[in-house]
Amino acid sequence: MKVLVVDDHPIFREGLKQILLTDDCIRSVDEAEDGPQAIQLSRKGKYDLIILDISLPGRSGLEVLEDLKKEKPEVPVLILSMYSEDEFAVQAIRGGASGYLNKNGAARELLAAIRQIFAEGLYISPAVAEQLTAEVRGRGNKGLHESLSPRERQIMILIARGKTLTEIADQLSLSVSAVSTYRTRILKKLNLKRNTDIILYAIRHKLVE
After folding, report:
1. Is 100 helix (H, G, I), strand (E, B) or coil?
2. pLDDT tens track of the chain, all 209 residues?
3. The CATH number of the domain where 196 resides is what?
4. CA-CA distance, 199 to 92, in Å (whole number)?
5. CA torsion, points 142, 78, 65, 2, in degrees to nearest 10?
6. Would residue 162 be called left, alpha or beta, if left means φ above 0 and alpha means ψ between -120 and 50 degrees?
7. Do 30 and 116 fall within a single domain?
8. Is 209:84 a contact under the CB 8 Å cutoff?
9. Are residues 161 and 76 part of one domain?
10. Are residues 121 and 169 in the same domain?
């Protein structure tokens, strides 16, 4: 199988590549550092799986996921993110992802997930299954945050974790003014006034631990 890894950290990409190539079913691994490069490579090459991070410079991974599914809907996408399952997993699965894993997981879990996606087209971890079940039963954490775009939701989570606008801008490769604009939109959509309100909202809706 041929895999494309999309992540903006070269050291992480290299480490992940080495892990993937230990599996006999994976013959080659290509790398992309951001959304545009991922789209470009996916158009040129025939991939059996794309492994995608959420935190990318420019457009977020969830926005890139949407583009990839429009371009190559038949290619499965596995989200591999620093964010826990209860923050973005359901949103990713809704967006067409074939699975969602946290980067803190073991290498064997990643390889098992990939094998299952190759075999069945979908990998749902117990943590993600719990989130999906809660949503189907109407017990999901519904709220005004459902109206946020993927990038707005990502920035809301970072603010809720105590990150400053400058830190968020550096992490997401955005300008501080762009992050400030997103913050203004978030406050408006959530009917909030300040960062402390965002923190309380995120805790109340169990969006952060």
Report:
1. strand
2. 899 999 999 999 999 999 999 998 899 999 999 999 999 999 988 899 999 999 888 888 999 999 999 888 999 999 999 887 777 888 888 889 999 998 888 899 999 999 999 888 889 888 888 777 766 665 545 578 888 888 898 899 999 988 999 999 998 888 999 999 999 999 999 988 888 889 888 888 888 76
3. 1.10.10.10
4. 23
5. -170
6. left
7. yes
8. yes
9. no
10. no
